[in-house]
Amino acid sequence: MNPADPTAADLALRAIGWPFDSAPSGAWGDTMAEHPQALPMRVVEQHRSGYLVASAPGEAIAVESLPDWLRRSGYRKGTIAPEDRAAVGDWVLVEDGKRIVAMLPRRSAIKRAAAGEHYKQQLIAANIDTVLVVCGLDADFNPRRIERYLLLVQGGGTPVIVLTKADKPEADIAAAVAALTEIAGLGVAVVPVNARDPGSAAVLHRWLGPGMTAVLVGSSGAGKSTLTNSLLGTERMKTAAVRETDDRGRHTTTHRALIPLPSGACLIDTPGMRELKPTGEEDLSGGGFADVEAIAAQCRFRDCTHGDEPGCAVWEAVDAGTLDPGRLGSYLKLRDELAGAAGQLATRMAQKVESRPSGKPAPKTGGRPGVKPAKRGSDWTREE
Ligand SMILES: Nc1nc2c(ncn2[C@@H]2O[C@H](COP(=O)(O)OP(=O)(O)OP(=O)(O)O)[C@@H](O)[C@H]2O)c(=O)[nH]1
Ligand SMILES: [Zn+2]
């Protein structure tokens, strides 16, 4: 790609989030040099037997998977871990427009625990720069739910909390911002908007620059579609027109997985984003609870569960009015949920080890989550 004179193909790639305006160097450049005949394309859908990929907005071309990715995936030795196969948002190299020959290095990923009987991790979206956590300034407003989303998307991109419906008479912006003080203190931007007004939504452009990719999360009715339409602005009609008259004579299916925005960024719209669940790998301090964890470090017992132990700094902070009890409740609930998910993951991996003929010992699954000790036990370690 020549930044001074980009071709139509360069611009199309950039519109779906290609993060370079010149030839990539480093690991990306190296992988591309190994496959000089292949072209970079972005995954828009993942199927059992193959992928739908795009090199331009609206495109969805069925291609063959790398043969390795078709083998049974799992965590057993010799199998491909699910997260090592391409997912929605990944960049892959495609030969002859029909075969994936390599995956380009991934910069970020949003994971979740897959639903179903067998506990497995699932990659929801890769290479996301910005996660817009959308919450309405109405009855939907709930700092606890926002905390939860922040935890689930950690490591997946820069989170921005978008408070929609700021124009409504009942919207109490000051109270909402006050309720999110701790989160804002951790460096997460909190932005009230009228999602129906493109001028108001434009404050989000600083997180939606050229070559960036964003996702929207938030409960039903929070304003995700409204915000998407406002971010699209008048370009919305133009995009649709371009799709109908594909000038490259190629048969393309109109696909809405990658939505190019006039700001230069693109939005990934994938069903998985609506079903986020903890994987057990999240780290509470990295997930927006660094303030609570810092207080918890002062508890008398290193393994304080913040139940009814003596010398619990967390409850002392609540009593002193320096920690919001609702925030602590949210922290404890998420902690237990994570422990539960981590326990499931450990159990599943232990079962796999046990089922192997060599019979290596299974790893310990740790304590039971959410169970408070009835009384001080001898296993409590004193912090001294
Ligand atoms: N006044 C006002 N209304 C809004 C705003 N954002 C969303 N709405 C309204 O809230 C309703 C729900 O908005 P949607 O954009 O459909 O919500 P969503 O998050 O896409 O919901 P799902 O598609 O169910 O996930 C619609 O009637 C919108 O017009 C806002 O900032 N101000
Ligand atoms: Zn404690």
TrEMBL record:
Keyword list, A-Z: Cytoplasm, GTP-binding, Hydrolase, Metal-binding, Nucleotide-binding, Ribosome biogenesis, RNA-binding, rRNA-binding, Zinc
Free-text function comment from the UniProt entry: One of several proteins that assist in the late maturation steps of the functional core of the 30S ribosomal subunit. Helps release RbfA from mature subunits. May play a role in the assembly of ribosomal proteins into the subunit. Circularly permuted GTPase that catalyzes slow GTP hydrolysis, GTPase activity is stimulated by the 30S ribosomal subunit.
Source organism: Luteimonas terrae
EC number: 3.6.1.-
Domain of life from the UniProt record: Bacteria
Residues annotated to bind GTP: 164-167, 218-226
Matches recorded under PANTHER family: SMALL RIBOSOMAL SUBUNIT BIOGENESIS GTPASE RSGA
Protein name, entry field: Small ribosomal subunit biogenesis GTPase RsgA
Spans traversing the lipid bilayer: none
Principal location: cytoplasm
Ligand binding (Zn(2+)): 299, 304, 306, 312
Encoding gene per record: rsgA
InterPro entries per UniProt: G_CP_dom (IPR030378), P-loop_NTPase (IPR027417), Ribosome_biogen_GTPase_RsgA (IPR004881), RsgA_GTPase_dom (IPR010914)
Cofactor binding remark: Binds 1 zinc ion per subunit.
Compartments reported by the entry: Cytoplasm
Sample GO molecular function, one term: hydrolase activity
Location of the CP-type G domain: 120-276
